[in-house]
Amino acid sequence: MIIDSEIQAEQKEIISKIKELINFKNLEPGDKLPSERMLSERFNVTRSHLREALQTLEFYGLVKSIPQSGTFVADIGIIALNGMIDDILKLQEPSFKELVEARIFLELKGVKLAALRRSADDLKRMEEALAAYSDKVIRGEEAVQEDLLFHLAIARASANPTLISFMLKITPEIINNFEQHHICDKNTAFKGIQEHKDIVDAIREKDPASAKSAMKEHFKDLYQYCYQIS
User: Fold this and answer.
1) Domain boundaries, the chain
2) pLDDT in tens, 57-95
3) Could you report how far apart the first and last alpha carbons of the chain are, in Å?
4) Which of 65, 102, 146, 217 could pair with 133 as two cysteines, CB 3.0-4.6 Å apart?
5) Torsion over CA: 218, 222, 228, 230 (sign)
6) How many CB atoms lie within 10 A of CB 165?
7) How far is residue 14's CA from residue 53's CA, in Å, rounded to a whole number?
8) DSSP alpha helices (H): ranges in the chain?
9) How much is the pTM?
């Protein structure tokens, strides 16, 4: 989830301190970090904020958390690790356009994988999400969350955990922006029903080219809107 600027600043400070600790103690790939309790006391931060910082590092593959064992430095060289942490510390909160660009890039790749790898259960989840979306639209209700749950079902069908993680990371902020900008009006929502059906049909037929084409058509209006407000 994208975090607000104040919490983001605190997390960056914690991440910076973790980097300093790794270098000060000359920790090697695979070495165990001190416990959350020890780190929170050492850095004078709450355990919840420390955990969020560690989760951020784990998301980028720089540490690995093992239940009942602890958190360990990732199996990469210390020079690469320091460089990647420096890049994380320079990251800025993304704009809505940047989030949408990332989402489109991920989904155009993901829908092709979904068409190739989807299971019967995956297809059932997509159809259920499409039905929930359609029901709300027909009743004249906002269906932003149902729309994104449909797309998350496609990501899950890709059978690529990394892609799914990225989608889960950006989805909450995308929902907020959709609601803020009132993007999904009635006409767009009704049009989305058929576009979603076209995507599902292509995935059902295991046709990656058609699935990508249908997804690209689905995103055309959103892409144009983002560039109008940028």
Assistant:
1) 5-90, 96-229
2) 998 889 999 998 999 999 988 899 999 999 888 877 777
3) 22
4) 146
5) negative
6) 11
7) 7
8) 5-24, 36-43, 47-59, 78-90, 96-117, 120-138, 144-157, 161-181, 186-204, 208-229
9) 0.68
Distances (CA, A) of 12 to 17, 46, 73, 77, 227: 9, 14, 18, 21, 30
Query: Which architecture characterizes domain 96-229 according to CATH?
Result: Up-down Bundle (1.20)
Helix axes 120-138, 186-204, angle to 10 degrees: 160
| Radius of gyration (C-alpha) of the chain in whole angstroms | 21
Name the DSSP class of 33. Answer: P
Residues 6+ positions from 164 with CB-CB distance below 8 Å: 152, 155, 156, 158
- Whether the pLDDT of residue 8 is over 90: the answer is no
Are 180 and 161 in contact by the 8 Å Cβ rule? The answer is no
Mean pLDDT, rounded, of the chain? 87
Residue 181 pLDDT exceeds 90: no
Tokens of 222: 């959103």
Q: Which CATH topology does 5-90 take?
A: Arc Repressor Mutant, subunit A (1.10.10)
What is residue 229's predicted lDDT score, i.e. its pLDDT? 47
214 pLDDT above the threshold of 60: yes
User: Which residue has 């400070």 as its token pair?
Assistant: 13
Contact indicator for 57, 64 with CB cutoff of 8 Å: no
Distance CA 52, CA 155 (A): 24
